[in-house]
């Protein structure tokens, strides 16, 4: 039985890059690893609807923090059985974004803390009602908002098909989301957390694998 690790952080924090580092390091330790990312754009209607809403479509859908969180949660629900099988078959399963993303963004949008109504709602919806597996550990990439936003802007400038969405364009929201993540860490929300970046983050998590 492997462990499930959620990798969290702002857009531009380097989550995709760090997943690649995990795969390289795991190969050197003869460790089996698999990964997925959320939202699963291109393979989930819920994820694609959420993306379209954040780019100005579907009327006032994106104005509702609960509606957007529900779409992201429904997207993850499709992967529940896959995640459980993956944990049975691999030493380490990584999620590039997981349930804490929903909690952090929703709390930031509604100006609530880690013990607020929307955070409790997210946990109950995804873990209890939808039956998603609880992560064994959560990694927050400790990249501050100003650096993450600069990276996200550079990524958008380099890729004409990767225009920033409404969340990414909102600097104030990104700052609040980062604070929400730190609040979740301090509250030990759902499971243990590590705050790190780069090789230090990779080694800290790989050392947790039995």
TrEMBL record:
Presence of keyword Metal-binding: no
Keywords: ATP-binding, Kinase, Nucleotide biosynthesis, Nucleotide-binding, Transferase
InterPro entries linked: P-loop_NTPase (IPR027417), Thymidylate_kin-like_dom (IPR039430), Thymidylate_kin_CS (IPR018095), Thymidylate_kinase (IPR018094)
Reactions that this protein is recorded to catalyse: dTMP + ATP = dTDP + ADP
Matches recorded under Pfam families: Thymidylate_kin
EC number, as in UniProt: 2.7.4.9
UniProt keyword Transferase present: yes
Thymidylate kinase-like domain span: 7-189
Enzyme superclass (EC): transferase
GO MF assignments: kinase activity
The protein's role, per its UniProt record: Phosphorylation of dTMP to form dTDP in both de novo and salvage pathways of dTTP synthesis.
NCBIfam families, alphabetized: PRK07933.1
Protein family: Belongs to the thymidylate kinase family.
Name this polypeptide is given: Thymidylate kinase
Lineage: Bacteria, Bacillati, Actinomycetota, Actinomycetes, Mycobacteriales
Gene behind the chain: tmk
């Amino acid at each position: 039985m492997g462990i499930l690790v959620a990798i969290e952080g702002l857009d531009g924090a380097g989550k995709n890059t760090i997943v690649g580092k995990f795969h390289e390091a795991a190969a050197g330790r003869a460790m089996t690893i698999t990964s997925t990312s959320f939202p699963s754009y291109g393979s989930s209607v819920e994820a694609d609807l959420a993306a379209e809403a954040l780019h100005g479509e579907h009327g006032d859908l994106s104005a509702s923090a609960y509606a957007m969180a529900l779409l992201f949660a429904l997207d993850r629900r499709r992967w529940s059985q896959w995640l459980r099988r993956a944990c049975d078959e691999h030493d380490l399963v990584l999620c590039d974004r997981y349930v804490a993303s929903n909690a952090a963004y929703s709390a930031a949008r509604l100006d609530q803390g880690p013990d607020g109504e929307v955070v409790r709602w997210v946990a109950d919806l995804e873990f209890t009602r939808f039956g998603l597996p609880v992560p064994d550990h959560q990694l927050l990439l400790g990249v501050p908002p100003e650096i993450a936003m600069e990276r996200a802007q550079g990524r958008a400038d380099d890729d004409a098909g990767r225009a920033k969405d409404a969340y990414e364009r909102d600097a104030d929201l990104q700052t609040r989301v980062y604070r929400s993540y730190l609040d979740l860490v301090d509250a030990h929300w759902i499971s243990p957390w590590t705050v790190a970046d780069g090789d230090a983050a990779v080694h800290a998590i790989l050392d947790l694998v039995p």
